[in-house]
Amino acid sequence: MPARTVISLENLPQTVGKIFDQAQNTTANHQKNFVALHKLHTETASHHGSAGERAFEHAFLNMLGHVLPVKKGNPVADRLMRFIGGYTKYMNERAMEEANKRGDDDDAEDFDTTAARFISRVLRFLFKGSVAKDKVVRYRVMQCIAEMISHLGEIDEDLYKLLRETLIERVKDKEVPIRVQATIALSRICGADEEDEKPTIIDVLQETVQYDPSAEVRRAALLNLPLGLLTYQTALSRMRDVDPSVRKAVYASVLNPDKATADPDAIDVTHPRALKIADRERIVKNGLGDREEAVKAAVAKLIATWVDIVQIEKVKSTIAEDALSSVFKTRVDILDSLTFGDDYWTDLSPERAFLARVFVDHCVATKDDVRLESALPVVTMLAFKIQEAYNDLNAFLADQTMDDFLKEGIEDEEEDERRQMVEEERTDREFVIGEMLKLSVNLDYADEIGRRKMFQLVKDMISEEDLPESLVARCLDVLRKLSSSERDLIRVVVEVVHDLRDRNDDEEQADPNRADDGETTFGETPATVKTARAPPKPPAEMTEEERARADAMDMRCLSLCIGMLERVNGTFEENSTLEGLLGELIIPAVKRKEAALREKGLVSLGLCCLIARRMALNSFQLFLNQLQSTPEKHKIPVLKIVFDILMVHEGHFLGPTSPNGDRIVEFLMHVFENSELDEVQALLCKGMAKLMLSGFITDERVLRSLVIAYISPETADNLELRQCLSYFFPVYCYSSAANQRRMQKIFITVFKQLCEIHQQSEDEDIDLISPAQVGLLFADWTDPQKATVVAKGVPGREVDESIHIDLATDIVKELFDDDMRKDDRKALCLLLGKLYIPDTIDDDKIRTLKLLMHNIRARRPLRDLASKNAFVKFETAISKKFEKQLEDFNEEEYRKLEHLQELFEFLDDIIPDIDDVDEMMEAPKKRGSRKRRSDSIVTDATSQGAPSGDDRSNTPFSTTSSVASRTKGKGKAKRRRLSTSDDEDEDTETEKMDSPQTVKPPTRVMPKRSAAAKTRAAVSKVINLVGSDSEEDIEETPSRKPTSNLKKVQKAMEAARIDEKDLAEQEDEIPHDSIMDTTLEEEDYEDEEVNNLL
What we know:
The protein is mainly α. The protein contains 53 helices and no strands. The radius of gyration is 44 Å and the shape is globular. Belongs to the CND3 (condensin subunit 3) family. It comes from Somion occarium.
């Protein structure tokens, strides 16, 4: 057998490179390359020792360094990152196998293995790249760590702390992809975190899930958040996230339906049996009520899997109903297996009654008449069932009332349990009756006997004082179904109300102190007398018991009135019987001091106002006053009344002819801005959003307030408000070009207000949305292309494509503000590139925009490079796209247009930033002074050339301070310059400025071809003025070393080139005040300087 070849360290980089080259092509050969690379690694380490390990690590890191600068999305780089993570896993597995074979259980030696040293070297190399300036490098570093981190094995404590700190720092990186990879990596070391380390990794992940501005990062944190008793509530809170993908991830991944059905015995915190009833209700309510179909589908799948695991609980809300309806849609097999025979109705439990009622509602909604006929019971039979159940309920309540009276004052655990069981029993009985009444609405009342029986039963039930409050609305629904018209319904309810209020008046009509002996006085003729109904006793004359009973009766009557008015669509004038209730019951209730009675009275009055326009006009101020005087928690029903009245009678309150429309809007804005309760804020937001979407409110102040509320950090926890506005703004803007125009007009105001908030909160730890993000939101909301998609489906709808042009005009006007911060100016400039520019634009608008951009460059030049590049790019695109429209543009003729006088007044008021121009002109002088030129030349001959032709870009500006050193035959002057100190330079410069013999250069600009001769003449003249002094200084001052002076000359040459390059872009803007051009060839200049120095 041939001897085994020893791997040479010189060929090691090529061998490692070949393996990486194969791994980047496909993932199919990764396993083979894991083996080859590990074999190379171990053999190199065994044959060459530590030097071999270092050589392999260097070759490996060299290959890794080639991958780090590759941008995101490159599949080759992604495969190599997976290869590195896979190799880490393979290497640790092999090391563990070898340790097990040796029987080595000493943990201390795990840190001193080849694998441990390799991982430590790679991680420390990656930590350096985590703070790189290039975002691509930081992204690839985090991606590599995320691939490796699950397979690191045992690492030392210092390396772990460094890894933890690096990942926590990158979770707050400004780039979204980097934060995503850092979050994924950080979630995989949660188990190694210790409680005393603050902040804990769990805290960091929870904060990321809730508050990170990027939906992609929140979703990554949600999917990788370890679920436990302390974290699952945070995960469930994302059911109200503003992004649909995050909401869907909660139902499809966090509450994984496949996990529950795969192993029913494995119960974790998200298992339906482990979840609380309130949590299950919240999941169903938020999921099935979501506006995204994808989210609804995920919830429907989740609920369908829950049917086989848990029973649907009976609840008073519609949550269980929505869940069961979803099951009927997704599980047709369950729907087919349900049958409702006569035995089913014999002993109804809450679950059985609920199932039958939802089944009937589902058949009615889907128009499944076949299943409906087989499920509906006979009307008469159901009426008797309801009557029997109601009688049993009354008997049960009477017995318990007696027991409570006998056991009054007894407080122990058994008594508490008994009361709790009684309450549950009462709730179950009421629930069964309510479900049967709901089912009665869908019955076929062709049977007249059954109809009369049901009508009389329901009428008698609402006439009972002890009828539970939860059954009042159900009885009124049946009564409305059985009534021939609204008048009939109102008549029946009014009779019942009067009967309830007058039931005890019969005992009071007779005088209790008068004895009735049945005898009459002589001459009296007995006759039948019709007794009139006595007026109710005033509250002041009532006892406490009578007053409490009267208040309870009024509450019951008000509940009946509210239920009746909610089911009436006719006008108040058409139903004159309501006037009696208004004067005798509703108005007195509004005047009561008790909060409960006054609230019900206000609701009843508000419902009357919805069907009575004149009453609404007279009573609207009353509701506004109640909003001011009512506590925060009691404002919700009053606000609902106010918004309902504004929606129904919009023309009389918010219409163009209404004198109080502006005052109403200002009042609502005042309440909205000063409300502290989240529910009140959300309700006000919904109400104003509906009014704006309907076109009843067009005030830009309201729209601005809603935008500020949407981006304000104070509403970050008010998810109901945030989700309402996240849905409102796109619908509002895309539905109408006029709405987009309003949004465009408020952009600058909102942007400036947000910038002020940022400036004020720089020292505070407040998570604010950046101005750049706000700009992107407005660019999206005002995009005419998205409004075009909506307009295609609506005939007669037009789209205004010039909105973004007007927005660009507003942005450019705002750039004239010299007090704007650098970051805010940059955000506006970058936003210009995001705007949609249509193919056809009105001439006035495009010329106005071009004029503003021209004046920006002339009067307020941008200093920041990023801002300047973005602005130039946008201006170039505009000029190129509308070149024909801008050909004949003349500003003088444009000034004559009357409608543009305001624009030119704005431009004329802008004072050019002369300081910046002077600073740019003085910059080359300051740099040139470091070259230690002759004093007289620096003082008297400083000038700017006027280059022309091909040489203009190379020498845009030149100073005569360098001419003295470039002009031949002036060696003595050079010797004087070398012997002059810095202090003497300054003194001499001052003297020459005051000298009357100083020759001032002309201010006329001449072509470059004549500049050279005049430059030589001017320089010769200036030097002759100081020639005699220079000869004397030669003898007094010793010369310096030529080599050091030559280096200074070379540095001066480089500084002059930099000055020329920096000022090349400004030559057209800075006026030239000199005809001298001192441009010479660099070689001649260097030779002359050397000769003068030597």
